[in-house]
Design goal:
It holds the Pfam family RuvA_N. One of its GO terms (molecular function) is ATP binding. This is DNA helicase Holliday junction RuvA type domain-containing protein. It comes from marine sediment metagenome. By secondary structure, this protein is of the alpha+beta class. It has one domain: Beta Barrel (OB fold (Dihydrolipoamide Acetyltransferase, E2P)). It is built from six helices and five strands, in the order βββαββααααα. A five-stranded antiparallel sheet has the order 3-2-1-4-5, with helices on one face. A hairpin with a 2-residue loop joins strand 2 and strand 3.
Length: 124
């Protein structure tokens, strides 16, 4: 629904950023790995993933489209996959962007082509 969000960075920590867009403050959850890239910025652009559930609406933000696309891909995963770090694909549907940021994204992305390639995902 939302491709990106661009605005003035009001506040940031290792889990979220508050971005002012024309007087409206948006809380955007971020991977801890991008915190250092944002801390000294005034204006930022984040590629977003918007999650709507029964009891919540959550906006996730990423520095690159690749990070966002891998997150989108993994949150749709129907198979139960346990990564060597203990990260489970089922849990990603809820909230584990910080753990996702620790994965080598290109390797995960290319391992996802077919179900037979899940072994590569496990080792990512």
């Amino acid at each position: 629904m939302y491709e990106y969000i661009k605005g003035k960075l009001i506040e940031v920590d290792t889990q979220r950023a508050i971005i002012d867009v024309n007087g409206v403050g948006y809380k955007v959850f971020i991977p801890a790995s991008i915190y250092q890239d944002l801390i000294d910025k005034d204006q930022i652009t984040l590629h977003t993933s918007y999650i709507v559930k029964e009891d919540s609406q959550t906006l996730f933000g990423f520095l690159t489209k690749l990070q966002r696309n891998v997150f989108e891909m993994l949150k749709k995963q129907n198979h139960f996959i346990t990564f060597t770090s203990g990260l489970e694909a089922k849990i990603l549907k809820d909230w584990h962007v910080n753990l996702l940021s620790q994965l080598r994204l290109k390797r995960v992305f290319f391992a996802y082509d077919t179900p037979d390639d899940f072994e590569y995902l496990i080792n990512a």
